[in-house]
Amino acid sequence: MLSLSKETVTLLAGIVVLICKAIYATAIYKSSCGLDKWKQGLLSGSSLAFPIISGIICTVKCNQGKKAKARILLVLVLTLGVSVTVVMTVSNAYAVNYYDAQGEKQFYKSDISFKDAKGNKYTFDFEKSGYDKLYINGTDKFLNADLCYLDKTGCLVYDEDMSITAKDEQSCVDKDGSVYYPAKFAAYNKDGSVNYSFNSSNFSYDRFGNAYTYSNVPFYDRDLNKYMYSFDSDTQKGSYTNVNTGEVLENEYCFVDRDGYLVYDKEHTFKGEKNEDGFEIYNSPDGTAYYWASSISWDKDGNLLDSFGNLLT
Predict the structure, then answer these.
(1) How far apart are CA 112 and CA 71, in angstroms?
(2) Of 39, 71, 171, 239, which sits 20 to 30 A from 200 (CA to CA)?
(3) Which of 96-100, 179-183, 252-256, 289-293 has the lowest mean pLDDT?
(4) Which candidate, 200, 198, 197, 247, places its Cα nearest to that of 219?
């Protein structure tokens, strides 16, 4: 079966439309021979941009028989029909097709559903959370979409300990090297295989330079306990949760030291002051400097950055 590139389809479509318009302009020109040459040429030229209006004017103003008028109407219908068909062909050539795991076409990416190994179905709900949550079996129970991945078979896997990191723009891996694809940015091909890519310039990094496709990367304390940030829309407050013990720390009192390790101000004694760049630095009673955890980030080398993207030393 002949397969044409999108660019070739567009070029051929443009040629067909031009030919149809030229035929119609010629029909208008010959049918308006009762007008003077200037008006005849103007009407014919106008038909290229305004075929229906030109056809009506030609039919009303020009002294024609029924056969001539029928000819103009026929050419107009054929021209518009071919043009619409060509435009739809080009649109289909450039249309992004989405499929589910069964190879069924979906009109929107948000209509794609995923299934885990137990057969549970997961879907996005834009009225509630957009791409932030995947709802389970049509209920109000959900998973954090940032931590939802697809394995090579297209099966949904939940990375509850945040151990999956971005390997490159085409895949993510866990600690054992198994390959996964972020569900938020993945889709299925018609054969059910997974289609995924992510621009590496949009990666976020943790304290060790590990890359992620989401912004709320894990934090570590000096004992290398891992913490996950979350935000409660009901209380309008954030928190950091130890992924192993479930201990919850209030975001308001979570800081990192100069080495990028998470520190919790249990006694609420840290005092903030702005530096020359306008960035808030907090000091403990013993004079040690800290940064509010939600105000910093890391680059790909694990260097600490402030909210303005400046390197913190």
Answers:
(1) 49
(2) 239
(3) 96-100
(4) 247
Would you tell me how many other CB atoms lie within 10 Å of the CB of residue 116? Answer: 17
What amino acid is encoded at 245 in this protein?
T
| pTM as predicted | 0.70
Higher-confidence position of 111 and 47 = 111
Tokens 């079996």 sit at which residue?
137
Q: Which of 287, 297, 225, 228 is nearest to 260 (CA)?
A: 297
Region of 242 (left: φ > 0; alpha: ψ -120 to 50; beta: rest) is: beta
3-state secondary structure of 305: strand
Any idea what DSSP says for residue 185?
A: G
Q: Are strands 194-196 and 204-205 parallel, antiparallel or unpaired?
A: unpaired
DSSP 311: B
Mean of pLDDT values over 191-202: 91
Helix (H, G, I), strand (E, B) or coil at 64: coil
Choose among 133, 305, 294, 119: nearest CA to 216. 294
User: How far is the C-alpha of 137 from the C-alpha of 260, rounded, in Å?
Assistant: 39
Burial class (CB in 10 A: 0-12, 13-18, 19+), 119: exposed
